[in-house]
Write a structure and sequence with these properties.
Family: Belongs to the short-chain dehydrogenases/reductases (SDR) family.
Number of helices: 9
Protein name: Carbonyl reductase
Keywords: NADP, Oxidoreductase
Distance between the termini: 43 Å
GO molecular function, one term: oxidoreductase activity
Order of helices and strands: EHEHHEHEHEHHHEHEE
CATH class: Alpha Beta
Strand order of the largest sheet: 3-2-1-4-5-6-7-8
Shape: globular
Low-confidence stretches: none
Largest sheet: 8 strands, mixed
InterPro entries: NAD(P)-bd_dom_sf, SDR_fam
Structural class: alpha/beta
CATH superfamily: NAD(P)-binding Rossmann-like Domain
Length: 288
């Protein structure tokens, strides 16, 4: 079957990722992107969990009532595909699949996969930055060439990545960063400072997750700038879903996963006035 639109959601077998897939299917028919059959790739590291998530959505009462899915006469179809963004072979295999299967390109990607670990030390910092910063950017670069001319890339960041907890010098470095390499140097300086036990003296908070998300916001801005300079009309943005009741927050968030999905789905499907390189929270552009 041929599809008019193709979307990808990473880390989508549970929590916000699963809700994003669900809301994409629910909102697509009334969105500006609706142009016919819509394929959504629900990706996850584990096949059994990914396929169970697809099955859950196929039996979702609201999706059935809305007749959102193909099986019920709707335009959307959800398929599982294996993807571990921390595994380069897995990422390349999925990118190759997309390129070969969808020769006209894909329309949207929501990079939702990420981690939040307890504690703070050099090893934890490396693990967190590898997934939330380096591997998310590697995934972004794998997907961007596959996006159609007006495609959309959404990177899931967090208001924890805002710059209020940094020294003036580090804050100015972030905001002055023009390229991805500029941001990566800040991440490297943070890592070195943690290894030396002097991250606070260097102007950073002792918080791996927060710094990884600050880096992701900055690098997403840089990617958007680079695309714009090439004349590309791809929209590249980052956003915060809010404090959501998921496993990552240990059930402490006041928002439901569906509420957490609102912001990334808006950036993926709806009219955002051509905004690119911006960070969004609570329905609007947020000053970094």
């Amino acid at each position: 079957m041929s599809y008019s639109r193709v979307g990808v959601v990473t880390g989508a077998n549970k929590g916000i990722g699963l809700a994003i897939v669900r809301q994409l299917a629910l909102q697509y028919p009334k969105s500006p992107l609706n142009a016919g059959p819509f394929l959504i790739y629900l990706t996850a590291r584990d096949q059994s969990r990914g396929e169970a998530a697809v099955n859950e959505l196929h039996n979702d009462a609201q999706l059935k009532q809305a007749k959102a899915l193909k099986a019920d006469g709707g335009p959307s179809e959800i398929k599982y595909h294996q993807l571990d963004i921390t595994d380069r072979k897995s990422l390349q295999a999925f990118a190759d699949h997309l390129k070969q299967t969808h020769e006209d390109g894909i329309d949207l990607v929501v990079n939702n996969a990420g981690i939040a670990l307890d504690g703070f030390d050099a090893k934890l910092v490396k693990t967190t930055l590898d997934c939330n910063y380096y591997n998310t950017l590697e995934a972004s670069h794998a997907f961007i060439p596959l996006l159609k001319s007006q495609g959309r890339l959404v990177n899931m960041a967090s208001i924890a990545g805002l710059l209020s907890k940094y020294s003036d010098e580090v804050r100015d470095r972030f905001r002055a960063s023009k390229t991805e390499a500029d941001v990566t140097r800040i991440m490297e300086d943070f890592t070195s400072a943690v290894e030396a036990g002097k991250e606070k003296e260097a102007g950073f908070p002792s918080a791996a997750y927060s710094v990884s998300k600050a880096g992701l916001i900055g690098a997403t801005r840089a990617i958007a700038r680079a695309e714009k300079e090439k004349g590309s009309k791809i929209l590249v943005n980052s956003c915060c879903p809010g404090y959501v009741n998921t496993g990552m927050t240990k059930g402490n968030g006041p928002k439901t996963p569906d509420q957490g999905a609102e912001m990334p789905v808006k950036l993926a499907l709806h009219d955002i006035n051509g905004e690119t390189g911006t960070f969004w929270s609570e329905g609007q552009v947020k000053e970094w």
